[in-house]
Amino acid sequence: MLAALVTPTAGRWCAERYQTLREQGASKAGAATLTLLWLLAWTLFPLERHGWQWILSHAKGLYPQVAKPRAGDPLRILLQSLWLIVRRPEPIPLRWPASWQRAWQRGTQGLSTLLLRQEEKGLASALATPREARWKSVLLCVVAGSLSLLCITQPFTLQAQLVFVIMLVVMAFILRAVPGRYPMLMMMVLSLTVSCRYIWWRYTSTLDWFDPVSLTCGLLLLFAETYAWVVLLLGYWQTAWPLNRPPAPLPADPAEWPTVDLMIPTYNEDLAIVKGTVYAAMGLDWPKDKLTIWLLDDGGRESFREFAEGVGIRYVARETHEHAKAGNINNALKQASGELVAIFDCDHLPTRSFLQMTVGWFFRDPKLGVVQTPHHFFSADPFEHNLQRFRKMPNEGALFYGLVQDGNDMWDASFFCGSCAVIKRSALDEIGGIAVETVTEDAHTSLRLHRLGYTSAYIRIPLAAGLATESLSAHIGQRIRWARGMVQILRLDNPLFGKGLNFGQRLCYFNAMLHFLSGIPRIIFLTAPLAFLILHAYIIYAPAAAIALYMLPHIFHSALTNSRLQGKVRHSFWGEVYETVLAWYIARPTTVALFAPHKGKFNVTAKGGMTEEVYLDLSVSRPYLVLILLSLCGLGFGVWRILTGPADEILTLILSMIWTLYNLTILGGALAVAFESRQVRSNPRVEMVMQAAIKLANGHLYPCTVRDYSNGGVGVLLESPLPLVGKERVWLLLRSGQREQEFAAKVQRVFGRKLGLELEPMAQQQSIDFIQCTFARADTWSLWQQRLGKDRPLHSLLDITLLGWGAYWRLARSSPLEPICILLEKLARWLLSFVPRRVSPDFRSQAPTPQTVEG
Predict the structure, then answer these.
(1) Is the pLDDT of residue 128 over 50?
(2) What per-residue confidence (pLDDT) applies to 751?
(3) 49/80 Cα distance (integer angstroms)
(4) Helix-strand-coil split of the chain, %, nearest 5
(5) Membrane-spanning residues where (predicted)?
């Protein structure tokens, strides 16, 4: 009846379903309830149809008789009912009557007006009587906190906990489907409620105080869970409302623009890498008399001096090399005199609009000390390269530069990251230059600026791009340096104490430093289930049902909320792989830095290398292999104890083995990263859509689109095929602003309308022009992150599962088990040969001819 009031189509459909259920033996109440469930499923959960279809298809396989249920079998009737829902291609069209729609619009408009008036009234009251408004806010917070504490600490029976969990799960799914910031904040509240309740339960009800082994293992796991809970809490608070600051305009008169010293520190990098950064810096849209480019060579190489003199930039070298990069910059600051200092790593190429997009904020905020922009990379890092995920998913740093720094900016706590930033010279002089006490001089410098009252800004627009680390070992070395340096700051200049910082800045800095202490907790999580499987230690002293009802909702809500919060910059479960790869290697240096902060040295990250062949980096993967063997032993002990142990421990054993299997999946993903893939390009290709033209030897011009480019070649797409042959000489015409540049090239490959061009050796001015036409374009990097898909947690979990267990297969293929693996592969192919394959009717007509494939 309800559906018939909404729309006749829905009414007829529900009547048919009701009659079908009655014919199958369902009672009137049962048929009506299931029909209502149909209607609610379509209206409340239309976006989850494919996920439910996948689940129900497997559930249907468990119940072969579901297509023809016996009379009075409610489980099978329910499964068939849900199956009929997901099989429909489109949801039921629910159309409200026009009078209802007008009433709804008037009601929502009236409610919005009322809320706006109340907000204005409350704001006026707060401005008129700030003390009274403050007391009202404090009273409201006390009441809300008391109710939250009651909800967190109230003991429930298992049945009550189940009902409570189901209610919150339903609310989370509904909120996840509603766009906007406030539903996401409500999801954070639900997640924190469940997580705090779990932590309270762990501290008050789950420790075995009478068994020393169980108590020790339980306290270690509780320490790791407490660390994860604190990080979760601070992460929600830090990123609840990211700022996303836009660029600020500059004065109309360029004569009022400040002078800028642009510094490029180098140590042992190749000159070919440094040239691109210098060429891009020379093309910045800034008055030439107000821009000075400095090449800071801590290697003292004559070739760098000659290059700097040849292109007309300043060269600085020093005889001593104390304090590494920070000392190199401080030495150059003694000779520079600009009002602002821009710093770029030697592999980061700035776009021509970099200064115009960043300097405007120094005019708007006189107390501004530093403006930071993202570190963007046009080459694949080891995770993207070895796992073949480049440009298919966000990279490891996307979470920090795409969300965390914006969240920091909301609390005036965004910090200098060592490159792609502009710093006020007077502020640097006031703190004594770049900080040299720790190996992460960038964050420490920002902390000192904030302590003196200077503000910071973050502009989330990629205005420069550089090279990522090529090998996993180099990547780990870089992260070890970052981890050691942040823990050094935590010890030597703790942001929680001291003067000059507000509450938000203290928590943001503390969270950044706490993040790098994840090594030991991650190792504990990877080994915790083994304590019960091998040592029979009760790490969580509670029944299996209670563990499931408290732990699983905590994991589910945090994963679902983070998927909503971080979905554009970090896909679900991939953070587990990143942390697992680094856990073993950052655990020791961070622990040492906590007790001996002055130990350790600065190491330079190597970039620009090549990998000639595929190999497993055993020096890096050895800890993972040890953890994998321990996990396999734990699974063996679990099977043995299920067969021979007491029956009341079977559920706990099953939960521990599921946890171990998940750990094995994550460890397999870490092992997959250690399989170094071939890297034979010294010049990474950059994908880009840019209009250009091809000029032939006869002078004819043909429009084309540049699809990718590098320092050595260009891939273009013609509007129509041209009669070109290999090694034919052509000229590529590119535009930089109002100027058109011409570059000689040879045709390397022709594939229909696609051309691969190899650029001929260029003179110095041509190289400068090419960099400024490609890498230094203002719009080169702005759309990269927008191409990435949204996070889908189930797909991410499936992806990591296939990746992790595929790594084990690759490992077996490279071991003495290779003959067995080959035999199993042949057996699988033989079995698959009996499976009929479906071919679309037009497949044969669309198949390319052999000539096309060969061409």
Answers:
(1) no
(2) 85
(3) 15
(4) 55, 10, 30
(5) 162-178, 185-201, 213-237, 507-524, 530-552, 624-644, 650-675
Q: What is the DSSP letter of 259?
A: P
Q: Is 289 a catalytic residue?
A: no
Identify whether 298 is a catalytic site residue: yes
CATH 2.40.10.220 positions along the chain are: 686-786
Exposure string for 681-718, b = 16+ CB within 10 A, e = fewer = eeebbbebebebbbeeeeeeebebbbbbbbbebbbbeb
pLDDT tens digits, one per residue of 442-477: 999 999 999 999 999 999 999 998 888 878 888 888
Confidence at residue 97, expressed as pLDDT on a 0 to 100 scale: 58
Of 261, 381, 406, 442, the active-site residue reads 442
Q: How far is the first Cα of the chain from the last one, in angstroms, to the nearest whole number?
A: 65
Render pLDDT for 225-236 as a digit per residue (tens, 0 to 9). 999 999 999 999
Candidate CATH numbers 3.40.30.10, 3.20.20.10, 3.30.565.10, 3.90.550.10; the one for domain 254-471: 3.90.550.10
β-partners of residue 755 are 716, 750
To the question of pTM greater than 0.85 for the whole model, the response is no
Question: Cα separations (Å) of 31 from 41, 64, 340?
Answer: 15, 22, 74
CA distances from 513 to 190, 411, 488 (A): 26, 16, 9
The separation between CA 474 and the C-alpha centre of its own chain, rounded to angstroms, equals: 20
Query: pLDDT, tens digit, for every residue of 618-658?
Result: 778 889 999 999 999 999 999 999 999 888 889 999 999 99
Catalytic residue among 298, 345, 381, 769: 298
CATH topology of domain 686-786: Thrombin, subunit H (2.40.10)
